[in-house]
Amino acid sequence: MTPSERAGRAALRLVDDPAAELEDLLARVPADAAAAEVELVALAARVVGAAVTVRATGDERELQWAVPVPAATRALLRRATVWLTLAAARDAARDGAVAEAAETAVVRDVVERLLSVRDLDQVLLSIADRTSKLLDADICGVFLREDDEVRMRSCVGNRVVETARLRMRRGQGVAGLVFLTGRPAKVDNYLDDRTITQDFVSLAVQEQTQSALAVPLRLHGRLVGVLEVWRRRPSLFTERDVRRMVTFADVASVAIDNARLHDEQAAAVREMELAGEALRSQVAVLDRSSRLQQTLLLTVRDGGGLPAIARTVGGELHCQVGIYDTRGALVASHGGRDLTVELPGSVPAGTRAGRTTLGGHPVWTQPVHADGDRIGWVLLRPDGISAEMMDVVAGQVAMACSLALLRERAASRARSEALEQVLWDLLQGPVEHRIAARTRAQQLNVPLGGALRVLYGRLENVEELAADLGWDTSQTDRVRRDAVRALRAVDGGRATSLASLRGDFVVVVVSDVDRVQVRDLAVRMGAAVRDGSDGLRLTWGISRPHDDVVELPSALNEARTALSAAHRLGGGNAFLYEELGIVRLLLGSGDDPDLMTFVEEVTGPLLTYDRDNDGSLIRTLRAFFDADCSQRVAAERLFVHHKTLRYRLERIKQLTGLDLSRHEDRMRADFALRLLQVTGEPEAEGDAAGPVVRSASP
Q1: Which of 247, 293, 398, 641 could form a disulfide with 366 if both were Cys (CB 3.0 to 4.6 A apart)?
Q2: How far apart are the first and last CA of the chain?
Q3: Helices and strands (H, E) in the chain, number of each type
Q4: Do 416 and 467 form a contact (C-beta atoms < 8 A)?
């Protein structure tokens, strides 16, 4: 518009021209659409000459009037309508931009806060709190996926505890619907809506919720959870609310992933720190245990036995140490720091390797093995030492004990093998070997002075026990070896050094023992074998005493004969050869019937006495038997007083050990006299053929 035109219009306004004023208004750009609308309605009413109203249709504005107007006026009003619509659209755009800027600022603040939080639980709580405020909701919850369901991990605004514990499968409730479809879902009236399941209606009643909106939490295209809000008041969630919540859910997903990564990184760091601490602890344990192992090996190398090992461990670790033998008895110990041993005197029944508790205190137990056999136990009671250290130390101490015992066993085995060689040279070697064996026995500190006896025994029920107890061959052989060890341990090994096992037969050579002592020794050896071998029985045959090692092969035959008598006659577990009587003649070998020995045992002392004392004991004994053991008849036939006869019979008992009142001893004496007569001893013939007249006994 030119200046002259504007001047003309100004002149017209002086005469009250509302159309001109309306034209002037439409030529300006209004600062505010609402104020412009008020001014426009007033001018339009003056132009029309009646009331004018504005109707909003969507984003458009329309002027309405009730009276007819000229076409020019109608055109002017249509222009006014367009002008008002544009002004309203401009203000709406401006207000929207301001609101978007404000919302963007809010979202930016929320994002910054979320990304600054590292703890996952704190992130979830922050998401729930910020979402509730952003959507002007009363309740907000964050569900995270766990396999085939989503579980509430964080919730704010709830009144019922069960809300914070919600779990939903696909299709259950609003969150379950999002879990099923992967798309946002909302309800305007929770109780009346039929698009969702009714699984949680009762909970909705308790919480008084009416509308709800839920969107998926996605990460790398995968649904990881659901974000849901509820309102207790009647309201509708708009598409703008959905867009805002989806945008926020995307940011929340990143924050959740960031927190998870942070937790994983923190866990990895903690794990590395723990691994480092464990490694340092293991290095310390290995360093200390290696020093202890070196000390123990030096102790064993220098010949230290079990007591030295106990002292070393107790001194190095300040712990109580107990070392036990095969039977579980304490053989070496050390009290550690306090020098007081509070360990049991024997290994408790049912003890197993590892950590246990005794008397309320932790104790480490470890078996000691050698040559495949368990030969003892080690018990350790620590004082301020870590369990890891004790696990290592228990094995090291057991190993040191094994080495020490193996060294002792090797020396003992070498000595045992040497003694066995001596034994079998004495029993089966030629004369020169027997004499040499006696010298070797003396070098091994095994005296062979005095009367020598051979004990020949048999392990009676090895195979039966093996079948009953399920022993295999190695276990059966171990039982046999244990039996020999038990024999050698009787009396501290002083009387039974020369002992050997072949199959199930045991041979022992003892010296300087009489009948009572050797029988007692046999009983004690049998008890030692039985107690250490689950009821193993041992039967003995025992030879006569012999003064020279050269006679030991004969002694072995005698012991075998006595063992045969034990098996045939029964009634005892130890039979002495000199007590067998004529039975030994029946059981003796064909190559050595031992007739002369039998005769000598009975008649030898009597012949010697008669020769040295001009006596008549042989004649008296013969007369006694010819008189059918009647002392009166025998005295008459010998022309002596009956008291003289009684005295002679008592002297015979003293010299031979035969009690003529016993039938067995009378039979032995009678049989010996008859054999003496058959063998043709000159002195015996004269004595036996003296003036004796047989008659029936009274």
Answers
A1: 398
A2: 191
A3: 22, 18
A4: no
**Distance from C-alpha of 656 to C-alpha of 489, rounded to nearest angstrom:** 35
Write down the pLDDT at residue 2.
60
Most confident range (mean pLDDT) of 160-169, 262-271, 403-412, 558-567 is 160-169
CA distance 180 to 174: 10
List, for residues 194-228, the tens digit of each pLDDT value: 888 888 889 999 999 999 999 999 988 899 999 99
Asked whether the predicted pLDDT for residue 350 surpasses 90, the reply is no
475-494 burial, b if ≥16 CB within 10 A, otherwise e? ebebbbebbbbbbbebeeee
Percent of the chain exceeding pLDDT 90 equals 13
Rounded CA separation 581/664 (Å): 8
What is the separation of C-alpha 506 from the centre of its chain, rounded to a whole number of angstroms?
Answer: 42
pTM of the model: 0.45
Q: Are 400 and 380 a contacting pair, CB within 8 Å?
A: no
Q: Which residues of the chain are in CATH 1.10.10.2840 domains? A: 589-679
Q: Report the distance separating Cα 571 and Cα 593, nearest Å.
A: 24
Instruction: Report whether 362 contacts 394 (CB < 8 A).
Output: no
Three-point CA angle 322, 328, 330, nearest 5°: 35
The region that residue 629 occupies, defined by phi over 0 for left and psi between -120 and 50 for alpha, beta otherwise, is left
Locate 293 and state its tokens.
């192992």
Averaged pLDDT, 227-239: 92
pLDDT of residue 267 exceeding 80, the answer is yes
Q: What is the pLDDT of residue 146?
A: 92
Beta strands in 413-528 (DSSP E): 452-459, 498-502, 505-511
Contact 347, 358 (CB under 8 A): no
Average pLDDT over residues 430-447: 85
CATH of the domain spanning 301-403, picked from 3.40.50.410, 3.30.450.40, 1.10.630.10, 3.30.10.20: 3.30.450.40
Separation between Cα atoms, residue 372 and residue 129, nearest integer Å: 70
pLDDT at 564: 81
Q: Where are the beta strands (DSSP E) in 147-294?
A: 149-156, 167-169, 185-187, 211-219, 222-231
Q: Dihedral angle at the C-alpha atoms of 144, 146, 147, 148, nearest 10 degrees?
A: -70
Calculate the average pLDDT of the chain: 82
Give the separation between CA 220 and CA 226, rounded to whole angstroms: 15
For 240, other C-beta atoms within 10 Å of its C-beta total: 11
